[in-house]
Amino acid sequence: MSISLANKRIETKHTLAVGGVAVVFVLGALTRLIEDRAPGWADGTALERVAKSIEFPVYAIILGLVGNFVLSKLDLRERLAEGFRTEFFIKTGLVLLGASINLSVLATAAGPAIIQALLLISAVFFFTWWLGGVLGLDEKLRALLSAAVSICGVSAAIAAAGAVQAKREQLAYAASLVIVFALPSIFILPWLAGVFGLSDVVAGAWIGGNIDTTAAVAASGAIVGEDALAIATIVKTTQNALIGFVAIALTAYFALRVDRTENSPRPTVRDFWERFPKFVLGFIAASIVGTLWVKYADGGKADITIINDLRTWFLIFAFVSIGLQFSARGLRDAGWRPLVVFGSATVVNIVVALGLAAVLFANFEIPSS
């Protein structure tokens, strides 16, 4: 009797998980539809420019939050939560993202982009870490916020979460802050670039170094122009490539300092391996394979385009899941301090990124094709 009951519970759990995945897929498909049709719907209206600039993370998060509200009212959200596989979707999407990071393209702006990435990430990461410590944030939340605001938003937060073994609620909170701050930046930075009289190249480097999500960088860069979009993409891609190094550093720090007690044994290589987010290796491998494939295979670029489309689907599912998992209770429990830390770090990021872009890309010219 007990075995039969246990089997029924397992079947019920699996059924609910499938139902949760189905909800994610439906909202994901609706996200893609809205992203595709919204510019046409807004054509000729005051919202035309806005509709053309907004990309899938915005729609996915909003639809996820709407789904969250509806399912909560129907008392279904917690029961279906097993199917909201945020980590699986976003880790798969990030591995596929690696395929589009062509090392030969990066080489065209490797010097200034790498220097900017290293200086900017270091300055913003340690400022965020320091301020989080001053305000007494939990060590793991400090790591997530520091990685997110200094590197590439949700992607970096996911990598940091795996390295420090953060709670799901902390990841959802960090991801929500990224989206909240990234959305206005899409439009504010191009406007400020015009106010400051920045060249398209410098504006692109500023946007790529400051906005936290790759999709938002692309949207903002496109508002400025093609040259700005190209440089913004290269700068952001360079920062993306450093996710692995930051994950390794966080893994070592938390294993050796934060999670180690006085009586615990010294961490072994196996301990590091168990904590290390394995998808980062897939990300690096995909970047290498993608670079070689585009260079040597017939139709390589077309293949990468297909992979990029598949990546977009997985990232849409991830952002929808983040919206579905978002908890207002988590915001209330975290209080005002994480918001102050992230907001302050964003201001520092804006200022430092502008200075570095103005110095490093002042005389940079995009190679002619």
Describe the protein's architecture and organization.
- The protein is mainly α and 369 residues long.
- The chain has one domain (86-360).
- Helices cover 82% and strands 0% of the residues.
- The protein contains 19 helices and no strands.
- Helix 7 (110-134) packs across helix 13, helix 10 (168-196) runs parallel beside helix 12 (214-224) and helix 12 (214-224) runs antiparallel to helix 13.
- 48% of the residues are buried.
- The model has no long low-confidence stretch (mean pLDDT 79).
Concise structural overview:
By secondary structure, the chain is mainly alpha-helical. 82% of the residues lie in helices and 0% in strands. The chain has one domain (86-360).
Task: Give short descriptive properties of this protein.
369 residues; 19 helices; mainly alpha
